[in-house]
Amino acid sequence: SPAEIIGYVERAIVMLIVAAGNLQALAFFFVAKGLARSKKLEEDPTWANYFLLGSLASFFVALVCGLIAQQTLALLWK
Q: Which residues of 4-32 are buried (b: 16+ CB within 10 A; e: fewer)?
């Protein structure tokens, strides 16, 4: 489904940002995602909780994968 594809793309972007070491870009990315859904967040509090929890969980997984990738690349270039 399109929602799944968007989720995979979001996680890949976060992972690449972290692996590149550009942590400032993470704040921009997370804010942009929230702004894109801001109207829906205001209208449906239940959905807002689901969205925030899902986003944080997805973000955490991508962050960990990005840190692992960053360390792996650092070891390979030694």
A: eeeeeebbebbbebbbeeeeeebeebeee
The residue-averaged pLDDT of 25-30 equals 84
- Which residue's entry shows tokens 């995979």? 8
Tokens in use for 42? 């205001």
Helices (H) and strands (E) in the chain, counts: 4, 0
Q: pTM here?
A: 0.77
Q: Is residue 44 helix, strand or coil?
A: coil
Q: Give CA–CA dist 55/35, Å, rounded.
A: 13
The dihedral region occupied by 21, where left means phi > 0, alpha psi between -120 and 50, and beta the remainder, is left
